[in-house]
Specification:
- The chain has about 80 residues and is α/β, with parallel strands linked by helices.
- The chain has a domain of about 55 residues.
- The chain has three helices and three strands, in the order αβαβαβ.
- The longest helix has 15 residues.
- It starts with a helix and ends in a 5-residue tail after the last strand.
Length: about 80
């Protein structure tokens, strides 16, 4: 679903934003945290698409996994630093 469609349906809407973890242990903690926060019914979650470039591939993977494994709408949060 498009985020714009979600925002039309949910008022007020809120979301959680996360940064991609830097190591495997961080991935486990991230998914545990998102799973715990799911009970607050966020409209969506966003994952920062790293401005420095080191976590960009992780962001794309995580956005899909959050949707598939946790069932929350998710999106990449783009940053424009250094571009």
């Amino acid at each position: 679903m498009k985020i714009s469609e979600i925002l039309k349906r949910v008022c007020p809407a809120f979301s959680f934003e996360f940064f991609p973890p830097k190591d495997d242990d961080g991935f486990d903690k991230l998914f545990q945290t998102i799973d715990q926060l799911k009970r607050w019914n966020p409209a969506f979650v966003s994952m920062t698409y790293g401005a420095g470039g080191s976590t960009r591939a992780k962001t794309i993977d995580l956005v899909g996994r959050i949707k598939d494994e946790i069932g929350l709408e998710s999106m990449a949060h783009l940053t424009c630093v250094g571009h």
